[in-house]
Amino acid sequence: MWFVGGSIYPFLSHVTEQIEPINIIVLRSTGAALIMLVAALIICPGAFKQLKWDSRLIPMVISSLIFSPICSGALAWSSNYIPGAVSALMYSTLPMMTTIWLMARGIKVSRPAMAGIILATISVVFLIGAPQGQIQTLGVIAALVSVVAWMVATEIWIKYDNGYPLVFAIFLQVSIGALGTWIVRPFFHSAPLRVSDALNVNIVFLTAALASQYWAYLALSRRVSPAMLTSFAFVNPLVAGLIGYLYFDQRINTIQMFSGVILLIGIYLLVREERAHD
After folding, report:
1. Contact indicator for 86, 135 with CB cutoff of 8 Å
2. Is residue 48 part of a domain?
3. pLDDT 10s digits, 107-148
4. Is residue 46 domain-resident?
């Protein structure tokens, strides 16, 4: 999940030059829903008979619509105005936001875990360095909205467990989000969807990445602490920078390489503390 999540940002920035953001999230969410449908049919086909139209679906619908179209839409829209590296930087504030939220609720966070989060957060800033491309305030705000939406949707998903088998629950979540993107799409007056857009190699990759990221992330949400769960955001800039260097010919300087090492140390402290409490 860490590495797949980080690979999304540079590809997303690149594909927005070819396809409108709203069409990107429609294609990605619909494709991810189809992938999860196949997975559910293979892994837990009997779960479809367990579906009931009751109050359990209300939190799921809310979290699904926050994940998509709100979260994914804001991220895709921000990619028109800021480089993928900056989007990754914004998402790297997620563990710190989550930790502050936990502390505000009176939930104790250990000192080693806090030290790892602070160390990783600081190193991310130097890891990003000076990203290539123009940075506009609207893009930064949209990326921040996406981060907050992700955190809120995660909190709702964790708090209101629907009781369905995991793969089937993820299929429902992604499908509801996909339906939401189709509902809001007409309001954007976007260009018509084309088969060539759906078959675009970057869209195919981003769709598969979205499905796998949801699967891993929502599965882990039932097994690890919130700080550990959101630690994927720290690895995102590292992966985004590496892909930018290898695939999009972006440069990496000495300070960024050193910051990457410090970042990994911070993640190690966080993971070690999590394992110590297992």
Report:
1. yes
2. no
3. 777 777 777 777 777 776 666 555 555 667 788 888 888 888
4. no
